[in-house]
Amino acid sequence: MATLIEAVGRETVNQLDYLGGLSIQLWAALRAVGASLPLVGNRYRWKASVAQMLQIGVSALPMVGLMAVCSGFILAMQGASELRRLGAMHYVIDLVAVGFTRELGPLLTAIAVSGRSGSAFAAEIGTMRVTEEIDALRVMAFEPVEFVLAPKYLAALIMVPCLSIASNVCGILAGGIFMFFSTHLGLSLYLRYVLTSIQLRDVISGLIKSLAFATIIVHVGCLEGFRVHGGPDAVGRSTTTAVVKSTFLVIVADVLFTAIFYFTGTH
Amino acid sequence: MAIISVRNLIVEYDGRRVLDGLNLDIEQGETMVLLGGSGSGKSTLLRQILGLERAHSGSVFVKGVDITRCPQAELRRVRRSVGVAFQSAALFNSYSIKDNVALALREHTALAPSIIDLMVWMKLAGVGLAGFGHLRPQELSGGMKKRAAVARALALDPEILVFDEPSAGLDPIVAAELDEMILLLKRAYQMTVIVVTHELPSAFRIADRIAMLYKGAFLAVGTKDEIRNSQHPRIRQFLDRVPEKMAEASALAAAFEKYMGTQEVNL
User: Fold this and answer.
1) Residue among A44, A133, A141 whose CB faces B90 most closely
2) Residue B247's pLDDT is what?
3) ipTM of the shown complex
4) Are A136 and B84 in contact (CB under 8 A)?
């Protein structure tokens, strides 16, 4: 019994330590991210941010688009199989449009970015730890959070919402294609129905979620990298942990935001 | 006045004392070699001098600033006058050698790009790598990487140059070349040099004074001749390369023979 209580206590302390580490890193990143902005910041950091935007955003676009198209078809088909029996096929349009804008677009994007970029952040920073590059930065009077993390954070804050919008478009178009083949509804009419079913607040709530997901993915990935101790095996473990933890926290954050929007009447 | 002063420095990891109340003065312009076996605490002491780790108690003064207690901005200012060549070179793999050397100049000075290019060429020429600036770290041999790390450490013309195990992993000829380069650089730039090593020929070639560490405490601090002529049993053991536990070696051999005697040979 004492061992169990001890184990629970140790794990609680570990989780609090982790949350504390995330909070401190987030605060440091928010203070440092200004240095990565164009014109007012450091031009080398901005160049690094642009390179990160290409990696996080542009390279992920085909994968995110394909995932959204598949999910759009799935959602439309699953919805249609039930709604057809009630003679309410036109609600498939609402289901796909609202479902993607509020929920599926940001969530699918976050899962894709977490798998691609979250693990890459952990691996990159973890390797820098192992090869003493992080120490080298510090003794060269650079702040690792500003030098390594801030460009990634800025890039994610810009690109994850962009990818979410792209995901929404792909998913909704997939729903349109399904509706064309199943009910012969023209694409232009479908898009007109889509525009009447979604509202600005749906788009904004999806984008707010995207910003939160980007924050979680970058900070969990980077913290796992910064906490690497040991050799290459530790780097491997950190990449796996980064993906698992960031995906879990993204879903937890999604529940929280959805609950907030639901109870405040935004949805 | 000493450029670096270590006062009553105690470092502990998980309750285990690694450095036990060290006191050391390193005078301006001298070459101090921190000599000791594996696990003696010399790399830990170096990390304390560089402000990379937090001490349990005690102080480290670099140019009169107590880096264990000073604000981060002050620490960064002090670090600009310290150049470090790490054991693993710790070059940034995503940059070319030229960019590695130019990094601190671009970020910490307002020099024009043409001046920076000229300075980078001078630093690389100083370590014999003038024609290799366009290469990436992974394209260089071990000795060349170490020299590139020295060029990077010299970028801001530091007052203190630190080498962590400069000869580790190098063949005797390249190691001797590196020793000569350290002596040449010291004469040329009139710097204070700190070298952490366990290589005796290297230590006695480059040192003005040697601080001999054993289990986290200094056995002796003195000139090369004082250390060479010391009759302290531990220093003699280190200099005469006497294995630590001969009794255990014979006990191991006896145990091995006993084990072999009880095993049946299966063909």
Assistant:
1) A133
2) 52
3) 0.85
4) yes
